Amino acid sequence: KISFVFDSFIFPANGSQSTIALIIPGIRMQTNDNKAFQIGFAGAYFDGDVIPLPIPMVTWFRRL
């Protein structure tokens, strides 16, 4: 089973600071009910610009 996932972390504006967001679209591959592997590439939103981050985000889920 393959799914498209989208994670995000948003740090709202505080006074004179701008809103900052970390945006991570990715693909999740689930081998069975207890295991899943996810890979995605992050981007940052800051001051109206989206900046790609060339660091892959890799996650392995396992339910015990």
Write the layout of secondary structure elements.
Elements lengths: L1 E10 L8 E13 L2 E12 L2 E14 L2
Antiparallel strand pairs: 1-2, 2-3, 3-4
Number of helices: 0
Rg, alpha carbons: 15 Å
Q: How many angstroms separate the termini?
A: 20 Å
Low-confidence residue ranges: none
Helix content: under 10%
Proportion of residues in extended strands: over 45%
- Give the overall average pLDDT: 87
Specify the structural class: mainly beta
Largest sheet: 4 strands, antiparallel
Overall 3D form? elongated
Number of strands: 4
H/E order of the elements? Answer: EEEE
What is the strand arrangement across the widest sheet? Answer: 1-2-3-4
Task: Name a few traits of the molecule.
64 residues, 4 strands, elongated
Can you offer a commentary on this structure?
It is a single chain. Strands 1-2-3-4 form a 4-stranded antiparallel beta sheet, with no helix packed on it. By secondary structure, the protein is an all-beta fold. The protein is elongated. The chain contains no helices and 4 strands. 0% of the residues lie in helices and 77% in strands.
Brief description of this entry?
The protein is mainly β.
